[in-house]
C-alpha cells in the first residue's frame, strides 16, 4: 500500500493542489486535509503548502498556526511524523515553533519570483536524503515575506548543529540572514523552506536546465526522499 501524505488546505492556500500532484508523481497517495478539522485521517506524513493563509493578516502563517488542525500537526511532528512546510507552510512552521526564528518582508520590499539556485546543506533529513551534501539544485521561488531572521544565539545553534537545510546560492532574493533558504529540526523529520519544490516535479513545467527548457525536476526528490523514509518504516 502506498504511503498516504496529507496536504493541509487553509483559507488562502494556493499550492495545495500542486503539492498533491507532486505527491502522486512520487507514487504516494495524496490526502486532502482541511484546516478546521481535528483529523489527520491516518496519514503517514504532512505537507503544509504555499499560499497566503488567512490573507497573511497579522503575520504570514500566524493565524494558520493556531487553526484547529495544527494541534494535531504539532503533536504528530513532535512524535516524529515527517512534515514539510513550503513557503507559507514554512511560515506556519515557524509561527508554530516547530522551527526557530521568523520570516519578514523581503529586504527589497518587493514580491520575488524566480528560479532559485540552492545549496543542499543537510541531506540527512526525511525530505532531503536523495540529494548530495553540497549539491546545487534549482527550485522556483515566489514570496513577498521570505526574509529569514533569528537572534545571534539561534543562528549560532543552527550553524553549529547543522540545522540549515538549504542556503541561497548566487543571489539572496529576500535578505535572509546567513542566506538561509530552509531549515530542519534536530530530528530531521520537520523541514521548511521558502522555494517551491512542488513546481519542479514534472517535465515541461519545471525550471530551465542546460538540457532543455522547463526540464528541471529537482523538486521531485523532496517527495521521493519522504517515500523512501516511509517505506523503511513498513
From TrEMBL:
<dbReference type="Pfam" id="PF13507">
    <property type="entry name" value="GATase_5"/>
</dbReference>
<keyword id="KW-0547">Nucleotide-binding</keyword>
<comment type="function">
    <text>Part of the phosphoribosylformylglycinamidine synthase complex involved in the purines biosynthetic pathway. Catalyzes the ATP-dependent conversion of formylglycinamide ribonucleotide (FGAR) and glutamine to yield formylglycinamidine ribonucleotide (FGAM) and glutamate. The FGAM synthase complex is composed of three subunits. PurQ produces an ammonia molecule by converting glutamine to glutamate. PurL transfers the ammonia molecule to FGAR to form FGAM in an ATP-dependent manner.</text>
</comment>
<comment type="pathway">
    <text>Purine metabolism; IMP biosynthesis via de novo pathway; 5-amino-1-(5-phospho-D-ribosyl)imidazole from N(2)-formyl-N(1)-(5-phospho-D-ribosyl)glycinamide: step 1/2.</text>
</comment>
<keyword id="KW-0658">Purine biosynthesis</keyword>
<keyword id="KW-0378">Hydrolase</keyword>
<feature type="active site" description="Nucleophile">
    <location>
        <position position="87"/>
    </location>
</feature>
<keyword id="KW-0436">Ligase</keyword>
<keyword id="KW-0067">ATP-binding</keyword>
<comment type="subunit">
    <text>Part of the FGAM synthase complex composed of 1 PurL, 1 PurQ and 2 PurS subunits.</text>
</comment>
<dbReference type="InterPro" id="IPR010075">
    <property type="entry name" value="PRibForGlyAmidine_synth_PurQ"/>
</dbReference>
<keyword id="KW-0963">Cytoplasm</keyword>
<feature type="active site">
    <location>
        <position position="198"/>
    </location>
</feature>
<dbReference type="InterPro" id="IPR029062">
    <property type="entry name" value="Class_I_gatase-like"/>
</dbReference>
<protein>
    <recommendedName>
        <fullName>Phosphoribosylformylglycinamidine synthase subunit PurQ</fullName>
        <ecNumber>6.3.5.3</ecNumber>
        <ecNumber>3.5.1.2</ecNumber>
    </recommendedName>
</protein>
<keyword id="KW-0315">Glutamine amidotransferase</keyword>
<feature type="active site">
    <location>
        <position position="196"/>
    </location>
</feature>
